[in-house]
Amino acid sequence: MVRIKKYGKLLLGVATIGGAILTQSFTQQAAANKKLAGIHRYYNTTGSPSTNPADYEYQDEDNLLCQPNDSKVCSSEWNLGTANPVIGQAPPSTATFVTNSDQEGQYTPQ
């Protein structure tokens, strides 16, 4: 009986730690998948306000590529729906421009 109590506490501790690790891995997976569909920020290659997809290109969202400049549009958001963004390419033809998503600045490619 003493052995069962001793190992029972150990198993409960291992199960708790295992549950925490599994929960964290699902949270990280969901964050990674968030980049695959939905709304994404595209950089404006012209600097002028535009809703033309040809004027934009997608870059890694972890980098900020806008330098301060009040007179230009650095980036805007596009809703891709279920499409995936591709680095270096314009939004797909099925994407829609997200109004009021412009970010001021000068786009500086890497």
UniProtKB/TrEMBL annotation:
Highest taxon listed in the record's lineage: Bacteria
Region annotation Disordered: where it falls in the sequence: 91-110
Protein name: Uncharacterized protein
Species whose genome carries this gene: Sphingobacterium paramultivorum
